[in-house]
Amino acid sequence: MKITVLSGGVGGARFLRGLRAAAPDAQITAIVNVGDDMWLSGLRIAPDLDSIMYTLAGENDEQRGWGRVGESERVSAELRAYGVGWPWFTLGDLDIGTHLARTSMLRDGLTLAEATDRITSRWQLGVHLIPASNDEVETHVVTESGEMHFQEWWTRHRAALPALSFVHHGLADASPAPGVLEAISDADVVLIAPSNPVVSIGPILAFESIHAAVSSAARVVGVSPIIAGAVVRGMADACLTAIGVATDADAVALHYGPTLLDGWLVDETDAALAPTIEAAGITARAVPLWMRDPASSAQVAGDALRLAQDL
Ligand code: GDP
Ligand code: CA
């Protein structure tokens, strides 16, 4: 079975780790958001690709929830002393190793997808990671005090500056990376991970050709990142509010819409929302959606596959 997943960083990574366990014989491809990517201190940073890679490699810091396990921050302290980079954005030393490797490959002329293939080949991930695009398409946030890269709004301002809108810089001249559209159209099942709908899944679906491919894909099932009217981790509610979508599992399903989605998983505590979703033409099912550990993540992913098979 071929399964293709649209994914952001940390939430997507947990889901993919669960999916790998739930479908050990499947050929899994993840189309990964690049909207958070940026140049910083001369390095190309790709946070969502790296969050997924570290998690699937078992190299992630479970306690902190992001980054590499056993990380140190000596290089960032040096960069701060030189006044280089963002003082409020610390990169771990091991993580900087990844960024150096990626930047070096890009400088040698590899595309981001080729660099990702080389970087991930170090581990047996069991999931093929494809960046949504090889082109630089960065998410910026428009606020009353000006426009800034998503990372500055999210990390420096903790998403507290009201966002007026999100823009995808470079989108007009960008195209999906080779293999992205094929991975969607050839898939038996397309899954939308419980990732931030606005700044993780949004920048992927902003490519019209990707949106069209998912819309005409065989079976498309999404997993709600919202449980009981709250974001499970992070500050995704600030993003949803900015685009006028309520922080509710049914509102997010309707935001993706029935053209895109065939099925939608909500948490068991949101079972009462299923009729609204079904009335919109999307098959809804209520199951536990907390990904507390690898076992509960595998349960969530398995339920997404079961819904896809029952459609
Ligand atoms: P990021 O790129 O690192 O921000 O990660 P993602 O966009 O992939 O995922 C972030 C989203 O995952 C958050 O907005 C949460 O709503 C969602 N999320 C995190 N943990 C869980 C969980 O255990 N269950 C569900 N259903 N959603 C989760
Ligand atoms: Ca992200």
Description:
- A hairpin with a 2-residue loop joins strand 11 (226-227) and strand 12 (230-231).
- With 311 residues, this protein is of the alpha/beta class.
- The mean pLDDT is 97.
- The chain has helices at residues 10-22, 47-57, 74-82, 93-107, 112-120, 150-156, 180-185, 197-205, 208-215, 236-242, 249-256, 274-279, 294-310, and strands at residues 2-7, 27-32, 38-40, 43-45, 128-131, 138-143, 146-149, 163-169, 189-192, 220-223, 226-227, 230-231, 263-267, 283-287.
- The protein is globular, with a radius of gyration of 18 Å.
- The longest helix has 17 residues, at 294-310.
- Helices cover 40% and strands 20% of the residues.
- It is built from 13 helices and 14 strands.
- It has one domain: Rossmann fold, CATH 3.40.50.
- Guanosine-5'-diphosphate (GDP) binds next to helix 1 and helix 2.
Question: What secondary-structure arrangement, pairings included, does this model have?
Answer:
Blueprint: E1 2-7, H1 10-22, E2 27-32, E3 38-40, E4 43-45, H2 47-57, H3 74-82, H4 93-107, H5 112-120, E5 128-131, E6 138-143, E7 146-149, H6 150-156, E8 163-169, H7 180-185, E9 189-192, H8 197-205, H9 208-215, E10 220-223, E11 226-227, E12 230-231, H10 236-242, H11 249-256, E13 263-267, H12 274-279, E14 283-287, H13 294-310
Parallel strand pairs: 1-2, 1-9, 2-5, 9-10, 10-13, 13-14
Antiparallel strand pairs: 3-4, 6-7, 6-8, 11-12
Bound molecules: guanosine-5'-diphosphate (GDP) and calcium ion.
Guanosine-5'-diphosphate is lined by residues 8-12, 48, 51, 193-196, 200, 223-225, 227, 231-234, 236, 289-291.
